[in-house]
Write a structure and sequence with these properties.
Distance between the termini: 55 Å
Shape: globular
Order of helices and strands: EEHEEHHHEEEEEEHH
Number of domains: 1
CATH architecture: Alpha-Beta Complex
Largest sheet: 8 strands, antiparallel
Radius of gyration: 19 Å
CATH superfamily: Naphthalene 1,2-dioxygenase Alpha Subunit, Chain A, domain 1
């Protein structure tokens, strides 16, 4: 047949990359080279082999929640809300040294991290990059590494493993988000303690509830302009 096959006769080619046990698919034109995005992530956890992460099926790993996907992404990068939404006693604000909280900005990603209030709940020193160590307090341990990959993906590393969040828009429903919440274990015993020690589900539930209330407030027309806190809002801004 003349002029066969044309480009339009073939299946569409998609960018597909592997990183450990994860498979990444780009449905459009890549924003940046894949390895440029993941290179800094891998360098932050030199002592963790991504191939060792084991996927676990959990309830509510894919669900529809209130709020626009951009609101969820903003909330994730805004550490100012921790002392209010995740307050103590028994909240994330108690589990970490809040004053140690840091945000690092990169071209297509950001990293947030803090020291654990109890060193035994942090990473072993060899698992994370040497730059996370405090030379004046060598006993301090990093509680978690919260990576945000633009525009809607998070890779949350804990001593127990990895929690992946993906905030997906729902066509025709800008007030709703398809929330994907995937869990991978690194240490099986610690994985079983992820909700008790690292407050994995509690923090997730608190964020979902907060965005639901914020979304309702925004739609009401009575919500005032929010406060600009440059140090705590580096990521979203």
């Amino acid at each position: 047949m003349k002029d066969f096959p044309r480009e339009s006769d073939s299946l569409r080619k998609l960018e597909v990359e592997n990183w450990g046990s994860l498979i990444f698919v780009c449905m459009g034109d890549p924003l940046a080279p894949f390895h440029e995005l993941l290179d800094k992530v891998q360098k932050s956890i030199p002592g963790i082999d991504p191939k060792s992460l084991r996927y676990h099926i959990v309830s509510d790993e894919s669900r529809e929640v209130e709020g626009n996907w951009k609101q969820h992404a903003w909330n994730y990068m805004d550490n100012y809300h921790i002392r209010f939404v995740h307050k103590g006693p028994g909240g994330l604000a108690d589990a970490i040294e809040l004053d140690s909280y840091k945000t690092e900005l990169y071209n297509f990603s950001s990293l947030q991290w803090a020291y654990a209030r109890k060193p035994e709940n942090g990473f072993r020193p060899e698992q994370v990059a040497a730059r996370f160590r405090d030379p004046e307090h060598p006993d301090k341990r990093v509680f978690a590494l919260w990576w945000f990959i633009f525009p809607n993906l998070t890779l949350n590393f804990y001593p127990w493993g990895l929690s992946v969040n993906q905030y997906m828009p729902i066509p025709g429903r800008p007030d709703r988000t398809q929330f994907h919440w995937l869990q991978y274990s690194l240490d099986e015993e610690k994985f079983k303690q992820r909700d008790k020690v690292w407050l994995n589900k509690q923090v997730d539930d608190e964020d979902v509830e907060a965005i639901s209330l914020m979304s309702k407030g925004a739609r009401s027309g009575f919500a005032p302009r929010g406060r600009f806190a440059p140090r705590e809002k580096q990521g979203p801004y």
